[in-house]
Specification:
This protein is mostly helical. It has a single domain (11-215), classed as Orthogonal Bundle (MetI-like fold). The chain has eight helices and no strands. The protein has helices at 11-47, 51-65, 69-79, 89-114, 118-126, 131-161, 173-184, 187-215. The termini are far apart.
């Protein structure tokens, strides 16, 4: 083994791991937060009665959901510069996660809206509420209860899928694991720690999703 190869982890490697952990969290929070904005618009359009609104929304959802996240990342990072748009690594990662999560979250929004009983919509119209008022005061608050458990599940999946961003050399948790493995040749030790950090992020969220499902069950 070459002399410059380090055979154990040190404090600097630990700091690099926590930097990767922080970058992973930032990447997922930004991707899901921005994706939620798009999902609300697309989900509302998907649940709308006019087909000229529902069809484009459905097409957007199917195109994104039926294509690999890795391909979406490559399109953002490699294709946009061909159009003269140079995209920083972090922005490319967030954009790919945003697009991917928005399509799945839009279906969660649609399901939540459609879970609200039609009798409540009729009652809101009977009180003189318009469409926006009905959505704001009647539908969205109740739909939110339905959306929370699958939304948390989507965040868990996004945390694990964010490892794909390592292919464009963004210093997130998986990329740090690759760097330390090349440095120490201790792949089992390094990726064991990486796996433990992913577990530390995802397990509490999975318990939160189960708790929210029990507590926020409609009619419960």
């Amino acid at each position: 083994m070459p002399q410059y190869v380090q055979d154990r982890l040190n404090i600097y490697d630990a700091l690099l791991l926590f930097q990767g952990l922080g970058n992973t969290i930032l990447l997922c929070v930004a991707g899901l937060g921005l994706g939620l904005v798009i999902a609300l618009v697309v989900g509302l359009a998907r649940a709308a009665q006019p087909r000229w609104l529902a069809w484009p929304a459905a097409m957007y959802i199917e195109i994104i959901r039926d294509s690999p996240l890795l391909m979406q990342l490559y399109l953002v990072f490699f294709a946009l510069p061909l159009l003269g748009l140079n995209v920083p690594i972090f922005v490319a990662g967030v954009a790919a996660l945003m697009l991917n999560s928005s399509a799945f979250m839009a279906e969660i929004v649609r399901a939540g809206i459609q879970a609200v009983g039609k009798d409540q919509l009729d009652a809101a119209r009977g009180l003189g509420m318009n469409y926006i008022q009905t959505m704001r005061h009647v539908v969205i608050p109740q739909a939110f209860r339905v959306m929370i458990p699958p939304g948390v599940g989507l965040l868990i999946g996004l945390i694990k899928d964010s490892s794909i961003v390592s292919v464009i050399s963004y210093i997130e948790l998986t990329r740090v694991g690759q760097i330390l493995t090349e440095k120490t040749f201790r792949s089992f030790q390094v990726f064991g720690i990486v796996a433990a950090l992913y577990f530390a992020m995802c397990y509490p969220l999975s318990r939160l999703a189960l708790y929210a499902e029990r507590r926020l069950k409609v009619g419960g």
